[in-house]
Description:
With 448 residues, the chain is of the alpha/beta class. It has helices spanning 22-34, 48-59, 95-106, 118-122, 126-134, 169-178, 197-204, 240-252, 271-278, 324-333, 353-363, 396-406, 428-435, and strands at residues 4-7, 13-17, 38-42, 63-66, 72-75, 89-90, 111-115, 138-142, 146-152, 161-163, 185-190, 209-213, 219-224, 233-235, 257-264, 282-291, 294-302, 311-312, 335-341, 367-370, 374-380, 389-390, 413-415, 438-441.
Amino acid sequence: xxxxxxxxxDALSGSVTxxxxxxxxxxxxxxxxxxxxxxxxxxxxxxxxxxxxxxxxQAFGASVRRDEDxxxxxxxxxxxxxxxxxxxxxxxxxxxxARLLMGLAAGHPITTFFTGxxxxxxxxxxxxxxxxxxxxxxxxxxxxxxLPLAVTGSATPMxxxxxxxxxxxQVKSAILLAAxxxxxxxxxxxxxxxxxxxxxMLTHFGATVRVEDRADGSRAVTLVGQPELVAAVVRVPGDxxxxxxxxxxxxxxxxxxxxxxxxxANPLRFGLFETLLEMGADxxxxxxxxxxxxxxxxxxxxxxKPLKGITVPAGRxxxxxxxxxVLAMAAACAEGTTILEGLAELRVKESDRLGAVARGLAxxxxxxxxxxDRLVVHGAGCPPVxxxxxxxxxxxxxxxxxxxxxxxxxxxxxxxxxxxxxTSFPSFVAMMNGLGAHIVEGIEEEEA
Length: 448
Ligand code: S3P
């Protein structure tokens, strides 16, 4: 356990670069590992989740190496060329790593064993194993389809047409990755569009992917099987889900003026920023550009402008699914009630995020109503009392969200275990302190 204390920050100022996008980093290593030739990756997120995916790709026979300039090089084995790992793959805390790699493994005639930490071993996997089993893979899993599990894949999986029962980019991506070796076209229909990094990157590596937006708001994604993937250069944009923390911190701390450079602005990831603007936040998007098929912007965030409570509709949740914990911190300081809807999926993330946010805010003196799939936050128009010890529950985003709230609350907020932050944002504490935060290791006494 590594406790952290976050107490009132000075006005934040400076310019920082968001760490590499986690979703895109996982996919770059996986597709690089499947492509013919050497893939070069700039800006890879060097967080534990992604490093575990790199190790897994090595266990599958790809060569993955980092040079002294921090550039990553992956020699792929070709589609259909993965070797059977000699040992269990441990994906640590990462649902994305585990689920997407299960897709890859399901499309190869090998047996692969997957495990992870206590958080990952609690998370539902049937949502991935069901469609992959339809394609011909065989699984042996714990009760409820949980890890550890073993998958025996097939050299020629069945192409399928599959409608996702939940809006999940991980499930969509697992199916598309398995479909790479399928003889024919596989279509995944998503009721609500989710992040499309797999589609973009598959195209970038030379696969044929067709996307059809349907009149009812659903989206059909079709992959033509058995492409030749060709090594590529990937420039990973900054992660909007990580940029969310300095953004909300700068909005809440009066007098702040922070620029966050190189933030991925994929419309399917940008719901938090839309929501904050609706709440009255002072955020300007500057220097809009495109890198490796993904839109990128710099964000200039100025603090102190009052935020007002709003209703965030369920339809927006896929585009900001990982940002609700930090949005709830902004809502706690806003004037009026914020209603967050369509949050059922938050219950099965690295922790039950809906429960963890509701409990933590209540302990900090914020009035909240927790529903099965919604959260109502009654903002007082000023920061809460704070002064609580928050259980991070192996969840990086819970730890970082409450560290942000501690930057404005009357009394310091303690995070009982900040270790999970290293899964996605190893430089979080240093970056925030560099901007003006006071986040220290250990449990600090309350100020007099
Ligand atoms: C991710 C998809 C989302 C998100 C996760 C990363 C991805 O999960 O919460 O952090 O990279 O595809 P779901 O697919 O479970 O919604």
